[in-house]
Amino acid sequence: MFTTRICKLLNIKYPIIQGGMAWVATHELAVAVSEAGGLGIIAAGASPPEVVREEIRNFKRKSNKPFGVNLMLMSPFAEDIVGIICEERVPVVTTGAGNPGKYINKFKEYNIKVIPVVPTVSLAKRLERIGVDAIIAEGTEAGGHIGEMTTMALIPQIVDAVDIPVIAAGGIGDGRGFLAALSLGAEGVQMGTRFVCSIECMAHINYKERIIKSKDRDAVVIGRSTGRPIRTLKNEFTREYLELERKGTSFEELERLGAGRLKLAVKDGDIATGSVMAGQIAGLIDDIKTCKEIIEDIISSAELQLKYITSMKGGELDG
Ligand code: TUI
C-alpha cells in the first residue's frame, strides 16, 4: 500500500529509514531495521575510520539487505570515512550537520546513493542540482543537531521545490505521523527516537527508559547561543548548560562542557550528567519492542488510520 519511489530507489519493502544517531546507531540496530524491511543506518558519528569500517563489515556478516552509513560532516574524520564508504561499497549514504556537496562526485563514481539531511528549502534545491538521489527534510522536532523549521511547514515546501523524492524526519514515531508525512508529499520517513526504544538498539537501558518516562516538553534545546543547537532531554546537564548560556559563557567553554556527554548517556547510562539526545516525539513513546514490531505496527496502523479518514462523513463513520 505504501510503496513509493523511495522503496524502489533503496530496494526496500517499507519507506522507513532509521536515523543515523551517533553512538546509538551501531550495526546491530541497522541489521534489525534492514531485516525488518526498512533501511538500517550505521552512524559514523565522530568515530575513527577503522571503527566505522568494522561496523560496516559486521553488518555485512549478519545481513545481505540494503543498508546505509550516516556521514556526520562535523566529524574530524569525515574525509577518511568517505574513502571507507566507497571502498566498502556501502549502497547508501545519508549525511548530517553540514553540506555534503564536495563529496557527491566521489559517491556517484562508486554508484552510491546519496541522501542528505537538510533543514531548509534552499539547501534542498542546491543539492538536487548537484545530483543527490533524495532528500531527508528534517524538522526542528528531531533529536540532536537541529534546524529551525517545523516538519509540518518544511516538508510541503521542499516537496514543491524539488523533483527528487523527499523523506520526512523530525517528530515521527507512529502510524499517524507516518501517514501525515505522506499526506504532506513525503515518500518516506526517517525515525530516530522511536528506534532507540527497540530491543536491538545497544544504547544503555537507562537511556531507553528516560525516553519512555519523558513528557511532551522534556526535549529541550541547548546550544542556541553557539549556533549549533542540540535537542536533548532535560536533566542536570541541560540545566547547567542553559544556565551558563544565559550568563553569556563563551563558545569554547560550552564546547568543552558538552564534549563526551552523548557517549556518557548512551554507553555508561549516565542520564543525569550525560546528553540524552531525543526528539519531541519522546513523550509519545511508551514501550520497547523489536524493530520488526515497530515497523509493522506503523504500517498496519497507518493503513487503519487511512481507512478511518476516508470513511469520515459528517462526524459519523460511513459503513
Ligand atoms: O546531524 C544531525 N543530528 C546530529 S549530528 C550529532 S553529532 C554530535 N553533536 C554533538 C555532540 C555529540 C555528537 C548529533 N545530532 N541531524 C541532521 C541535521 N543536519 N540536522 C540539521 C542538519 C543540517 C544543518 C545545516 C544540515 C545541513 C546544514 O547545512 C548548513 C550549510 O552548510 O549549508
Protein topology:
Blueprint: H1 5-10, E1 16-18, H2 27-35, E2 40-43, H3 49-62, E3 67-72, H4 78-87, E4 92-96, H5 104-109, E5 113-118, H6 121-129, E6 135-138, E7 144-145, H7 151-161, E8 166-169, H8 175-183, E9 188-191, H9 193-196, H10 205-213, E10 219-222, E11 230-233, H11 236-246, H12 251-258, H13 261-266, H14 291-310, E12 312-313, E13 316-317
Parallel strand pairs: 1-9, 2-3, 3-4, 4-5, 5-6, 6-8, 8-9
Antiparallel strand pairs: 7-11, 10-11, 12-13
Helix pairs in contact: 2-3, 3-4, 8-14
The structure holds ligand TUI.
Ligand TUI binds at residues 22, 72, 96-99, 117-119, 123, 138, 144-147, 230, 262.
Describe the protein's architecture and organization.
The structure is a single chain. This protein is 41% helix and 16% strand. The protein has helices at 5-10, 27-35, 49-62, 78-87, 104-109, 121-129, 151-161, 175-183, 193-196, 205-213, 236-246, 251-258, 261-266, 291-310, and strands at 16-18, 40-43, 67-72, 92-96, 113-118, 135-138, 144-145, 166-169, 188-191, 219-222, 230-233, 312-313, 316-317. An eight-stranded parallel sheet has the order 1-9-8-6-5-4-3-2. A three-stranded antiparallel sheet has the order 7-11-10, covered by helices on one side. Strands 12-13 form a two-stranded antiparallel ribbon. β2, α3 (49-62) and β3 form a beta-alpha-beta unit. The longest helix is centred in the C-terminal third of the chain and has 20 residues, at 291-310. Residues 22, 72, 96-99, 117-119, 123, 138, 144-147, 230, 262 line the site of ligand TUI.
